[in-house]
């Protein structure tokens, strides 16, 4: 990936594998579903607003899961909400990623023992790619999560896996 | 020389229609290529939940052909009117209210003020009209049927409403005229004399 960016800086002509090119395009425009559950969402909004400006790494909230790549679970996942989260996650097109933001969605947080209504970790419902610790995490932590996700996307080979199934 | 002549008189340039045709073709081609690329590149893993309608995570119920109260449209229309009015008022306040323009000619300020008063006045007349009609009142406790003063007596409507219609059997009415026509057509075929076909030299 650094290779592509170096090529861009040198003469603007890129020679790369399609998988690398796709990955570069995808990690440069990770669009989350505009979706916040609890107080972590306030930090998420802060991260997206002008001070931290997540838009500079291509993070741009979308109003529909059909257009989204990432789902930020920012807040306490109750059982009532888990049903909706599951459905929204299913309605996102592949490849899709989940960032679990804050203690509540990581493991239940302060409700881990006595919260009868709280799911003890959103990963019991949908697969999570990156966990962000904190209660709530600072915007920098969320930006860090997106950088970690970029590293993950960078290593993926979607087309290779699709057309050369035997080597997977 | 001949080649030059042809090049000058028959230029292979496109007409304006040709350009439009090319533009259309290029557009169709681009869309097709994009859709083909998407088909190659994108993963396709449909499931019932993914294919269902997106309703903010809720389970979609009922049909999408929902009937709206038509009063929403009236309110939206009035809102739009005054929304557009504001768009005109802001540039008016900033551009025409400039102190330099007013200093150049003292009538300028009065002129623009009266112009805007006329414009706002027409719109406010519309608002008064709507208000008077009761379109702004959302909750309407009693239903008011509009009455019209017309000279037609109620008995005219009663005659229409109480009229009874006899329904005839449709099969009987269709078959009868067909048979009659065939009977009538038969006598016309007789010519009144017997035609003889004798050869003159027999």
TrEMBL record, chain A:
Task: Tell me which EC number(s) this protein carries.
Answer: 7.1.1.-
Name the principal localization, coarsely classed.
membrane
Describe how the cofactor binds.
Answer: Binds 1 [4Fe-4S] cluster.
Does this UniProt record's set of keywords contain Translocase?
A: yes
Locate the NADH:ubiquinone oxidoreductase-like 20kDa subunit domain: which residues?
A: 39-148
Q: Which domain of life is it from?
A: Bacteria
Q: Which InterPro entries match?
A: NADH_UbQ_OxRdtase-like_20kDa, NADH_UQ_OxRdtase_20Kd_su
| Keyword Cell inner membrane belongs to the record | no
Query: What keywords tag this UniProt record?
Result: 4Fe-4S, Cell membrane, Iron, Iron-sulfur, Membrane, Metal-binding, NAD, Quinone, Translocase, Transport
Residues the entry annotates as binding [4Fe-4S] cluster: 39-40, 104, 135
Signal peptide stretch? none
Question: What does the record say about its membrane topology?
Answer: Peripheral membrane protein
Pfam families the UniProt entry points to: Oxidored_q6 (PF01058)
Please state which protein family the record places this protein in.
Answer: Belongs to the complex I 20 kDa subunit family.
List the protein's name: NADH-quinone oxidoreductase subunit B
């Amino acid at each position: 990936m650094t290779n592509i960016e170096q090529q861009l800086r040198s003469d603007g002509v890129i020679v790369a594998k399609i998988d690398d090119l796709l990955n570069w395009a995808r990690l440069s425009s990770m669009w989350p579903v505009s979706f916040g559950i609890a107080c972590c969402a306030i930090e998420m909004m802060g991260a997206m607003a002008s001070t931290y400006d997540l838009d500079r790494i291509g993070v741009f909230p979308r109003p529909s899961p059909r257009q989204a790549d990432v789902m930020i679970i920012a807040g306490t996942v109750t059982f009532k909400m888990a049903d909706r989260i599951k459905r929204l996650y299913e309605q996102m097109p592949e490849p899709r990623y989940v960032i679990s933001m804050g203690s509540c969605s990581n493991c239940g947080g302060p409700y881990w023992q006595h919260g009868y209504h709280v799911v003890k970790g959103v990963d019991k419902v949908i697969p999570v790619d990156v966990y962000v610790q904190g209660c709530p995490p600072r915007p920098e932590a969320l930006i860090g999560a997106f950088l970690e996700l970029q590293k993950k996307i960078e290593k993926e080979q979607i087309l290779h896996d699709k057309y050369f199934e035997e080597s997977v | 020389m001949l080649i030059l002549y042809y090049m000058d008189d028959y230029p292979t340039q496109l007409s304006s229609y040709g350009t439009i045709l090319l533009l259309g073709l290029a557009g169709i081609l681009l869309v097709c290529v994009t859709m083909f690329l998407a088909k190659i590149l994108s993963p396709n893993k449909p499931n019932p939940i993914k294919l269902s309608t997106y309703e903010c995570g809720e389970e979609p119920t009922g049909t999408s052909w929902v009937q709206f109260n038509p009063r929403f449209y009236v309110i939206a229309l009035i809102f739009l009117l005054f929304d557009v009015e504001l768009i005109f008022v802001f540039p008016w306040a900033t551009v025409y209210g400039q102190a330099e323009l007013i200093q150049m000619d003292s009538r300028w300020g009065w002129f623009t003020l009266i112009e805007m008063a006329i414009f706002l006045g027409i719109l406010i007349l519309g608002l008064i009209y709507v208000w008077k009609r009761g379109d702004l009142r959302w909750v309407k406790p009693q239903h008011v049927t509009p009455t019209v003063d017309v000279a037609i007596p109620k008995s005219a409507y009663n005659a229409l409403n109480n009229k009874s219609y006899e329904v005839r059997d449709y099969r009987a009415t269709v078959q009868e005229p067909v048979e009659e026509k065939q009977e009538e057509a038969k006598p016309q075929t007789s010519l009144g004399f017997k035609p003889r076909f004798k050869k003159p030299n027999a």
